[in-house]
Design a protein that fits this description.
With 175 residues, the chain is mainly α. Helices cover 88% and strands 0% of the residues. The protein has seven helices and no strands. The longest helix is centred in the middle third of the chain and has 43 residues, at 62-104. It is elongated.
Length: 175
């Protein structure tokens, strides 16, 4: 269940935040590692899904847009809270497991061979590229000014759906 929730959160974040991140031109590509691969794959999936959802959503009445926004906001907030809690638990468990492996000498033994060193270096670089991509996306998309601009644009484009999303998210965090 945790893996499914994590996967759905990842897909949701990518669908919501792919466009702003890819539209920025930078001299260094921060989309390396697993994060970049996931973004490339989901971008091809997200575009037709987004078009189909927008087509149906635009046909809704104002009340329907409010209800749809509230349902999405509620679900997104509940999903985000539970996934965040489970992620913190998993990171804590991984930390304890690696400390136990280090204490038992298993990690030291893996570092003692040349092949082990190469694997560790490649793994470290891959994980660092992945973490860097996530870091840059978070910095770009969770910037308070970017959030304010996104809310302002959403309110101008669709006041009822945006208000419903905020209402649903509030209920999801409170309940």
């Amino acid at each position: 269940m945790y893996l499914l929730r994590s996967f759905l959160l990842l897909i949701t974040l990518i669908v919501l935040f792919v466009s702003p991140v890819h539209s920025q031109q930078r001299s260094y590509n921060h989309d390396g590692g697993l994060w970049g691969e996931v973004k490339r794959v989901t971008e091809t999936i997200a575009t037709p899904v987004e078009a189909a959802v927008n087509k149906r959503y635009d046909k809704l009445s104002d009340r329907g847009k409010f209800v749809a926004g509230a349902a999405l906001g509620f679900g997104a907030s509940r999903f985000a809270v539970s996934t965040t809690v489970n992620t913190v638990k998993s990171v804590g468990a991984a930390y304890i497991a690696f400390e136990a492996l280090e204490y038992a000498g298993i990690l030291k033994e893996a570092r003692s061979t040349k092949e082990g060193d190469e694997i560790i270096v490649k793994t470290r670089d891959y994980l660092l590229r992945t973490a860097d991509g996530i870091r840059v996306d978070i910095r770009t998309n969770l910037n308070p000014n970017a959030i304010k601009d996104r809310i302002d644009k959403s309110m101008k484009r669709d006041k009822h759906g945006t208000t419903g999303f905020g209402f649903g998210a509030f209920l999801g965090f409170v309940l």
